[in-house]
Amino acid sequence: MPSLFRFLAVVALIAGLVYAGMLALTLFVELKPREISVSVPPDRFVKPPR
């Protein structure tokens, strides 16, 4: 039984570290919005005949 508790403690610690890392990324990383333009070839607008 102690090995089960130790395993669960390690899994909880790893999950906590992952959660803390994701939280840190959301708090400290500033995204800069920018314009994106994509050229679409004209043949994409033409529907194939049925």
Tell me the series of helices and strands, N- to C-terminal. Answer: H
Unreliable residue stretches: none
Overall form: elongated
Distance from first to last alpha carbon: 68 Å
Strand content is under 5%
| Count of distinct strands | 0
Tally of discrete structural domains: 1
Proportion in helices: 40-55%
Contiguous helical run count: 1
**Main beta sheet: strand number and arrangement?**
none
What is the radius of gyration computed over CA atoms, rounded to a whole number of angstroms?
A: 25 Å
Average pLDDT over all residues: 90
Structural category is mainly alpha
Transmembrane segments: 6-29
GO molecular function: kinase activity
Keywords: Kinase, Membrane, Transferase, Transmembrane, Transmembrane helix
Protein name: Histidine kinase
SSE order and pairing:
Blueprint: H1 2-28
Describe the fold and architecture.
The structure is a single chain. This protein is mainly alpha-helical and 50 residues long. The protein has one domain (2-44). The chain is built from one helix and no strands. The protein has one helix at 2-28. The longest helix has 27 residues, at 2-28. It is elongated, with a radius of gyration of 25 Å. The model has no long low-confidence stretch (mean pLDDT 90).
